[in-house]
Amino acid sequence: MLPVDFTEHMRTLFGSESDELFTALEGERTYALRANTLKISPDGLRQLLSYLDEPVPWCDEGFYYNVEAPDKDRKSLSDSASDANERSIRPAKSPYYHAGLFYPQEPSAMLPAAIAGIKPGLRVLDMCASPGGKTTQAAAYMARSGHLVSNDINASRIPALIKNCERLGLTNVTVLNENPQRLTQVFPNYFDIVLLDAPCSGEGMFRKDISSTAEWQKHKPAYCASIQRPLLRQAAMMTKPGGQIIYSTCTFETCENEDIIEDFLTGERDFSLMPLDYKSLGISEGFIKNTGRVLPHRQRGEGHFVCALRKDHKASPSQGLDVDAQYRTGAPSAWSKQGLGKRIPFREGQSPSDAQIKGVDFFYDFCNNNLHNRYEWRLLSYGNALYHVPPDLPNLRGVRVSRPGWHLGFIKDKRFEPSHAFAMGLLTSDAIRSLRLNVSDRLLSCFLKGESFEVDCDDGWVLVCVKAVCASAKVCADSNACAGAYDDVCVNADGNAYPLGWGKVKNGRLKNKLPPGLTVNR
Question: pLDDT tens-digit profile of 322-370?
Fold first, then answer.
């Protein structure tokens, strides 16, 4: 049941269209997922998942699907596939989900990052990031280069954000748990693109989540607008001249959308709205020029608002803390041994050299014995945790850091223990030893359950992977690479198999190293 106050106001905004809107909001929601192009192309994903429908018009990597359709791909993934509920589309049950090949995402939520023009080598901030949809989409566009900062002020939401970053194999992301006001002191004029999906009253989610109507009663639009205004100003301080802010919400309210933008532009003369190609994006025009909306009675998606704000190239730099000056005039800070998420000092230029990282030789021994080394490591240690960090990681003194970069693992007594994140950020071809399992192989199910099992494999660390099921012979780049493969599976010279995690083999038995929190019941 839609709130009365909401329906009355929507009639003033949409007039004769309001009844169509209400009908849509009380109907069935739309479902979509997005290919993770760090690992697979959109066409490649189409060949793996037979249930994918038409592409999302504003996102080339996104596809709709009908959740009630029979899932032909699940016949090999579960012993209980005969159950009617198991035959419906449940993407998170697929091994390809656990391999990070796609991200289930509401289609409208794909719009902000899709219009941002994110490219490799840029500096990008996702200000309100959890659970990670825009972060993982931005990272895919960045193709493992540049620096992506993913922040969420709510500590309880950080684990979900980290989990998704790790599952999709992100290697150039710094995850923070900080108040955006604090970030303006650390990152003044730093980012090429700032994604601000602002906290809002959530009216666009009424169809997706009926409980959001209760939240709407608690947090009215005017209250949310009071939060959005300072967030947008803070985003402006962190945007470098020539950069842009992508502002979005999942609400219909003009006081949280167009009014916020008009107020911002009145005070920030260095910013202007960028044109949106409504026709090619397949979205509706907002109530002011160069703003866009997804309306559930017009488009296949939940309610959404978006616009792009460009900062003038000649804009005066925003004033922030001169971070580098702190370090030019003083000695490096001591390295804290507090837990991650505390206020800890991080700065690549002043991090210990390899010689100063206790036990770093164990990491290099691991790489030499288990990987075809293709990486130029920029190592940072914190306690016994080891990270590979972005090339221009700034001083993060006083900032709550959850992950400074790609978590490689832990240096323990006379050994290095690789992390799950390390496995997921690798290519199958990086590993000297890999176990490539067919989707119908019982050992794949055993591995995802966290079980250990017997294998015919040399001793050492093994990258356990799932093979891609061919839709046609054209998938194979090299027909000779099919030798020994299952009839319905082909592994070409570049892999076409995707990491799921580590196993360690000794005397023909693989010890499962999948973290307990990631195991699944099948």
Answer: 333 322 222 222 223 333 333 334 444 434 456 578 889 999 999 999 9
> CB neighbours of 72 closer than 8 A, spacing ≥ 6?
50, 51
250 is catalytic: yes
Selected catalytic residue, list 165, 200, 250, 490:
250
HSE, CB side, 13 Å, CA atoms: give it for residue 34: 30
* Backbone φ and ψ of 306, nearest 5°: -150, 150
Length of the chain: 522
Helix (H) or strand (E) holding 399: strand 399-403
Read off the amino acid at residue 371.
L
pTM above 0.90, yes or no: no
Find out whether 198 and 128 touch, Cβ atoms under 8 Å.
yes
Q: What are the C-alpha distances in Å from 214 to residues 34, 201, 220, 257?
A: 29, 10, 10, 21
Contact at 8 Å (CB) between 96 and 49?
Answer: yes
CA distances, 23 to each of 1, 249, 300 (Å): 11, 21, 14
Report CA-CA distances (Å) from 287 to 91, 257, 371, 496, 503: 36, 9, 55, 46, 55
User: What is the residue-wise DSSP string for 255-280?
Assistant: GGTHHHHHHHHHH-TTEEEPP--HHH
Q: Scan for tokens 């905004």, then name that residue.
A: 13
pLDDT at 374 over 80: no
285 Cβ contact partners less than 8 Å away, ≥ 6 residues apart: 276, 278, 291, 292, 293
pLDDT band at residue 220 using 50, 70 and 90 as cut-offs: confident
Q: What is the DSSP string of 307-335?
A: EEEEEPTTPPPPP---HHHHHHSSPPPPP
CA distance 85 to 100: 24
Q: How far is CA 425 from CA 99, 176, 373, 502, in A?
A: 10, 19, 14, 12
DSSP E strands in 182-320: the ranges are: 191-197, 239-249, 271-273, 284-285, 291-294, 304-311
Integer CA distances (angstroms), 116 to 119, 141, 243, 516, in order: 9, 10, 10, 37
